[in-house]
Amino acid sequence: MESTIESMKTKQNEQEVAMTKLKEVFHARLLGEQEERKRQVNNLKQEEASRLNHLASANERIATLSQELEREKKLVEMFKAHKDDLEHVITKAGEDRKVLEARLKEKMDVVDVLNDKVSLLSLEINEKDKSVEKLTLLLAAKESECQTLNAL
Hints:
- With about 150 residues, the protein is mainly α.
- The chain is built from one helix and no strands.
- The longest helix has about 150 residues, at about 1-150.
- About 0% of the residues are buried.
- The model has no long low-confidence stretch (mean pLDDT about 95).
- Keywords: Coiled coil.
């Protein structure tokens, strides 16, 4: 019986040693897994921080591009308004040109009429000059005749 008890005690000690070894192995494995989890968490945190930095950079770039786009839109609107103004000025200038061309044509027509009148008046003056010359010659002849008659 004592040998049985001794055998049981030995068995119990062996089991306790085995249990202690199992606990140590389990504890070592658990620590290893915890370290691995910490490393993975740290890697994930670093990756998250990196992605957040990239996101912040992208958001800054988006904001910058949005501001630039707004400036470009304002410039486009300004150029459209300027273009509309210029088109209006060009249209008005075209209308003014037509009016001025019509006035010029009227003035040219008046000049043509006046030139025709000047030509007619010049012809009349020439005819009158010829008449005056004839009358002057006739008068001179009559005066000479009168003097001849008076002298007799």
